[in-house]
Structures are given as structure tokens and as C-alpha cells.
Amino acid sequence: MSIMRTHPASMGGGVKDWSLFISVTLGLTITAAALIWSAYDSPTGGLSPSDFRSRSGSAPSLSPDIPRAAQGNPRPAAGQAPPSPHLDPLFSALAISQPVEPPEAQDFALLDMEGQPVRLRALQGKFIFVNFWATWCAPCRLEMPSIEQLYQTFKQTEFTVLAISIDRQGAPVVKPFLASLKLTFPALLDTTNEVARQYGLRGLPTTYLIDPDGRVIGAAIGERNWSSTEAKALIAGLLRHAAARPSDPEPHLRPDGR
Fold this sequence. Notes:
By secondary structure, this protein is an alpha/beta fold.
């Protein structure tokens, strides 16, 4: 019986070849990932982390860009005060960052699952929960049922959800996904990722809270339990705060016009 012997030099050469192959493969993978992500990492507006601070004055370590108004200035909202400070602990408990001066949410129009256009500005007067997601995003899939529960809790109030899918395949992949999880909240299609870039998307899922005056009052990157007691208490508190704001100081005319 003969025994095959491998020369040490040939073994060393094989190890070096495999090391070189693995190094090149990793290098190419990292480069490709950077190039793909750069396609999303080109926001048309937004606040820098130095502008995006909590009320305590400390900047979060990872905060999404808050989109500015078209001219880059925060929009004053007549009759609408910032969220009450007593809600701050709920923002903190959910790791939702708050801008110092809430900017106007940039308007957009996207198609829903029925092919009908939905414009953000048309929903002014409601609290809008904008969530960017994708069917291939595992954390998105995990948080979707909690968004559905939040939607069911408040859908009879001045609150709505806009779940914006960035899947390039659009409705053919999004519809079955929503059906499989029995999700009924409004979903929109951003197949070109135009709105994702407009909002400076940095990761998935990303959520923005937009008040009835169209200002972005909070943002969060990453999965959250939106059906938690804290999340429901926050939305309920925001709705109460909006309902309690002073009405517009316009005189009420009598039937005779005086």
C-alpha cells in the first residue's frame, strides 16, 4: 500500500493561494457594498448630526437626517406649539430623536397598492407615521406587526401610517408580503428610491413622525416595538396635544356677515 505524501512547499503554496483568493473576494465585496450604499447615501437635504439634537442638548450617536423644507429653513407653525415636554420620556424610551427646530416634511407623491397616487401634503391635519422599509429587510419584517397594531389602535383618529417600500420590483413583491403578514395599513411604492434619497435614508427601517402642521417632530433608525405601551402613550399624547392647541384667531361671522 502506497502512501501519498504532500511536499510542505506545495502545501504552503496552496494556503497562500487560498488566502489571496479570500482577501481579493472580501475586498471586492466591501467595494461593491460601498458602491451600492452610495446610491442611497445622497440626500438632497437634511440636518447634520450637530443640528439634530435631543432637547437635553446631546447628539445621538446614530440619527437619521431630518429633511429640511424646500428652502432649507424650519417652518414656523401658527398656533402649533412643540410637543409637550412631558412627552420627552416617551421619545427617549423609544429612542426617537427630536430636532431642535422641527423642519417642514418634504412633499412627495407615490402610488399605493391600487396604483392610486398619494400625496403627503394632502394628509396635512393628521399625524403621519412614515416608515421606510423593504421586503428583504429582516428588521422591517419583525416590526411590521407592531406597526399594524398601532395603526389599528389609532386609525379612527387623526393618525395614519404611510409605509414606503423601496423594493425596486414594486407591487408584485410588496402585495404578497403585506398579505402574508395580514397588514392593512397604507403602503406606498418608491421603486426609484427618489423619496428615500429626498429624505436622506441611512438605513432600514427608518421612521419619521410628522405632526398635523407638516413638520417632522421625530425620527428613528432601526426596529422598534410600535405596539408597546410607550409607543401608544406617545401617539395618544401627541393627539391630545394637537387637539388642545388654540384655534385660529379668525372672527366668526354672523349669518348677516357682521
